[in-house]
Amino acid sequence: MSLQTHEGRVAVITGAARGFGQALSVGLAERGADIVAVDIGDSSDTVTQIEKLGRKALALTADVTDPAAVAEVGEQIRSHFGRCDILVNNAGAYPFRHFDEVDYDFWRKVQALNLDSQFLMAKAVVDLMKENSWGRIINITSNSIVIAVPGLAHYMASKTGVIGFTRGLATDLAGFGITVNAVGPTATANEGAKASGVDPAVIDAVVQMQAIKRPGRADDIVGTVAYLSTDDAAFVTGQTIMADGGLARI
Question: Are strands 57-61 and 86-89 parallel, antiparallel or unpaired?
Fold first, then answer.
């Protein structure tokens, strides 16, 4: 049953073609939002699922690390919907690589996708939010920042940066009716993990550290993101919520 808590809202989700991004796109559509699905790949399957729910959907193919491409995304959102109420900065990757094998080019690529893209997308849509004096920005971080995971120095740096960016942006945008929060999922055996070459043994090890002893699923963060993107969370900003099965018990 649809709660329709997002009726009349337009939500922009990056990395929307699969995994967390697809689950978030469909989950917010189930609650009444129209969706802009942004991905460097094909988001047609996500759009089909959303349209079956009776909601509007726009698929935009873009490299969210490219400033010009992201600026064009902002223009297309304005042209197509005329508004943006919710931004979920989900696009990212977590390739395992020992520090000895990380060169500067690889380091920059990880920072660009996991952190810089969140800055660029916020810049692209924040004026649309200001026009309605209402906005919700949710940045996806990671629970890896609270545990020592070998081979992820580059990734942990980027995701810790997301939390700092979230706190600073929440401060800057509070006067415009815009809240900014971060959500940290746990290790998940989804398509993104497989593409990043994550060893299933790593997933198993993480599960054993959690209070809830099962691997994370893409839909595990939908409810948390949905809450943060409603009026119910109007007094919650600058926060990081770990939806991670109780690994980070803070």
Answer: unpaired
